[in-house]
Amino acid sequence: HRLEQICSFINLTLSDLFVLTEKQKQQLTELTLEQEMELIDNPKLLLVAVCVRDAWSFEEILEQYDIDEFEGIRLMAKLDKIKLIQLLPGNNYKLLIDQDFRWIKNGPLERFMEKEVMHRFMDHKFDEEDSFRFYLRGRYSQSSIDIIHRKLNQITKEAAILNQEDAVLPLEKRKHMGLLFAMRPWEPSLFEQFRRPSARKD
Q: 3-state SS of 64-110?
């Protein structure tokens, strides 16, 4: 009886619930090339995909963006078709991708992010409330590099979990935030120009 009450509250029948349980699969950790291309080729589809990844309701998407109900349903159906969500009755949905899913290396989404997002993201003073920017360089052993990698991956997973936990809060209680973690072998060209030719590859 309690289960029926819960299902009724979210406009879901028990039979719908059982079907979903049977179909439930492990969430995707990486999109296919075809899925990424579908998102890149349709900016509004990409927008809605980002919203559902952050657990926005269908009504919240229509309220915040210039998308009418018919277009919203069509975009949600498209996300269902390319298997990013499972569309449920009442324009509810089940997310089929992990919170910390990764882009294909050098794939369409990564190229888009590098071109359209990351440069603009970093071209900022970072002086607003809740902003943070920190740059550190050093010369590390491979074991230390492995430790840093592990800690960065852990922070990524923790941030994804927090985003998932906060999804139960109303939209006005959550802020749009961008987080960028990066690490690579690199020396500023300002320093590199002074290297002896014999030491250039060190």
A: HCCCCHHHHHHHHHHHHHCCCEEECHHHCEEECEEEEEECCCCCHHH
Place of tokens 């960065």: 152
Average confidence (pLDDT) over 143-156: 91
DSSP-derived letter for residue 89 is G
Query: Reduced to 3 states, what is the DSSP secondary structure of residue 1?
Result: coil
Query: Strand locations in the chain, DSSP E?
Result: 28-30, 85-87, 93-95, 97-102
**Which among 176, 40, 199 is positioned nearest to 107, based on CA atoms?**
40
166 Cβ contact list (under 8 Å, min separation 6): 173, 174
Q: Are strands 97-102 and 93-95 parallel, antiparallel or unpaired?
A: unpaired
pLDDT digit string, tens, across residues 97-106: 887 778 888 8
Q: Could you tell me which of 101, 110, 113 has the C-alpha nearest to residue 30? A: 101
Provide the whole-model pTM: 0.68
* Cα(13)–Cα(191) distance, integer angstroms: 65
Q: Which structure tokens are listed for 97?
A: 């991708």
Q: In whole angstroms, what is the distance from residue 116 CA to residue 110 CA?
A: 10
